[in-house]
Design goal:
five-stranded antiparallel beta sheet; mainly beta; 4 helices; SH3 type barrels; single chain
């Protein structure tokens, strides 16, 4: 069934024959319709009456479609939505984004100035839904338009390659990389598997999320480490007790055997510098 893209509220001769000097209106299209079907005989009769030879190869129906001619008008909006996805999800791969206006676009839409788009994170995660876009029209008056979208996108995540027990360190032997459709990803997907320890038992095949893990700290609260205390030109090494969990570069509180508390920077495993 033939489809013709139209860009306004009427079907004109120029939609079929571009060289005409007499661009008559053949048919007015309802404003609330993005797609409209008409009997092909209405078009055939016009051209035959004007002396054109016209053969009907349409099986009797012609489809007039506004949305196809509008797609190039919001290419920027598609790119903006891609940008939002990439800001929300690290390393996302977007195969396609299809956007359609909920209603036919206003006249002079190509003169509108984009201001902002509002879309909920839950709809981004779902991969489809509606969102709001604010524009200023050709007279600088604010206009609010509603669009629908569908996304085909994937996230590089991690899947448990075996059962992971509570307290196990995440590594290449118990987790493997996998691509997951965004709709099937956990609410807080795990994309950086480094230095993590399981908070509870995880079954083989589970797509991993940040909620299932905690940071695996190098220095454990309550453990004893070496600390260096500088007093003038004197450098003293003492044993201290870590009062907090910490990794290299963290500043934590430590306590000496005489119950004095200092701030100390963790320089390496079991070594801190007292400030």
């Amino acid at each position: 069934m033939p489809k013709y893209c139209i860009d306004n509220s009427s079907l004109k001769v120029s939609n079929f024959y571009k060289d005409t000097l007499n661009d008559e209106i053949l048919l007015n299209i309802p404003q609330n319709s993005s797609s409209f079907k008409i009997p092909s005989i209405k078009i055939i009769d016009y051209f035959q009456n004007k002396g054109f030879e016209a053969a009907d190869l349409t099986q009797g129906i012609i489809t007039l479609d506004r949305s196809c001619s509008q797609k190039n008008k919001f290419t920027f909006l598609t790119e903006h939505l891609k940008k939002i996805y990439k800001q929300t999800y690290e390393n996302i791969t977007i195969d396609s984004i299809n956007i359609s206006p909920q209603k036919p676009l206003p006249q002079h839409f190509d003169q509108f100035t984009f201001k902002k788009a509002i879309i909920s994170k839950s709809k981004l995660k779902k991969g489809e839904g509606t969102f709001i876009v604010y524009y200023n029209d050709e007279k600088n008056i604010q206009k609010i338009l509603y669009f629908t979208f569908q996304t085909q996108a994937f996230l590089p995540l991690f899947q448990a390659s075996q059962d992971i027990s509570n307290g196990s360190i995440l590594n290449s032997s118990n987790a493997k990389p996998t691509l997951v459709q965004i709709q099937n990803a956990p609410t807080k997907p795990l994309q950086n598997p480094n230095n993590l320890i399981a908070k509870f038992n995880i079954k083989k095949g589970t797509i991993l999320s940040t909620r299932q893990f905690k940071k695996n700290t190098l220095i454990k609260k309550g453990s004893f480490i070496k600390a260096i205390l500088k007093e003038g030109k004197l450098v003293i090494g003492i044993d201290v007790k870590a009062l907090q969990n910490a990794n290299i570069g963290d500043t934590i509180k430590v306590k000496t055997s005489k119950n004095k508390i200092f701030n100390a920077i963790i320089k390496e495993k079991n070594l801190a510098i007292i400030r």
